[in-house]
Amino acid sequence: MKLLEFTDKGIYCAKADVYIDPWKPVKNAIITHGHADHSRFGNTNYLCHELSKPIIAHRLGDISIETLAYGEKRVINGVSFSLHPAGHIIGSAQVRVAYKGEVWVASGDYKLENDGISTPFEPIKCDVFITECTFGLPVFNWRPQKEVFDDINDWWKKNQSEGKISLLSGYSLGKAQRIIANVNPEIGKIYTHGAIENMNDVIREMGIYLLPTERITAETTKEELSNSLVIAPPGAIGSNWTKRLQPFEVGICSGWMGIRGARKRQTVDRGFILSDHADWKGLNEAISATGAQKVICTHGYTAIFSKWLQEKGIDATVETTEFEGELSEISEQKVKEEAVK
Predict the structure, then answer these.
(1) CB atoms within 10 A of CB 23
(2) 256-305 pLDDT, tens per residue?
(3) 87, 92, 264, 339: most buried, per Cβ within 10 A?
(4) ∠36-262-248 over CA atoms, to 5°?
(5) From CA 68, how far away is CA 81, in angstroms rounded?
(6) φ, ψ (nearest 5 deg) of residue 339
(7) Looking at the domain that runs over 5-140+276-330, which CATH code has it been given?
């Protein structure tokens, strides 16, 4: 029997009767992080990192949820589970599963670059590594985030000089807080969509510092918004909510902006290549650091990436999951298809 297996409900450890990031309701669930495709409603018992608990509880409501610190072990029927930093978003974790000398790691989503707000990725030695492949193509090669934020700050200042509001799109959990943590507040005020500010409130209550931001309400005037940076989730772009912001320019922060034509397809003025997932180099570095001789590829460019690993002498296979990677940040999966052309 495999230590972990892929079932119609999720990644399952039969020995401990525990699932990792199940996509259907189960009794016992270990959750890697708070994004909706990994933490779903309906499980009886939840276990996650202590920084993920307020986030998951905010999203899912009254649930039974226990926590672990990074590196803390929980033994269930002889199987040892521990959580280790994934660097993806605040509280994100890889799950280390060990039994009778065999070690598996389910990575969830991860990135190697220190974003300044999430606990940085920690490679864990293991026999089997379950990896995402969201950006598992050589075309995806991230620039250092400082360079990206220099571009964002310059764009914001340019818009100010032209009398325009800068409307920047980023997912309400993770990307938005990363933007807030790294833009230059000396340029102007930062306003947020209600969905983002609700999440900011949760994160601030956890004791994590964020730059001052102000929620846009029905009473917010156009004069107050002048010269500002407005951060909104992807779903708000192009909606009636944006009417009060005119004139404005729209920017989007996403790894998919690394594909030619992606910005035009999303009908935005600027695309900033900024992802909370590992790029091609990061995926390869992470896998190498684990020392794993078997790698299971999930969600993303699984066929291409697994073949690449096989050519390097690694036993790589593909498993189907219901995780989305970064597709929730864009409005068309066509962008993903363009990358393989």
Answers:
(1) 16
(2) 998 866 555 556 789 999 999 999 999 999 999 999 999 999 999 999 99
(3) 92
(4) 85
(5) 10
(6) -65, -25
(7) 3.60.15.10
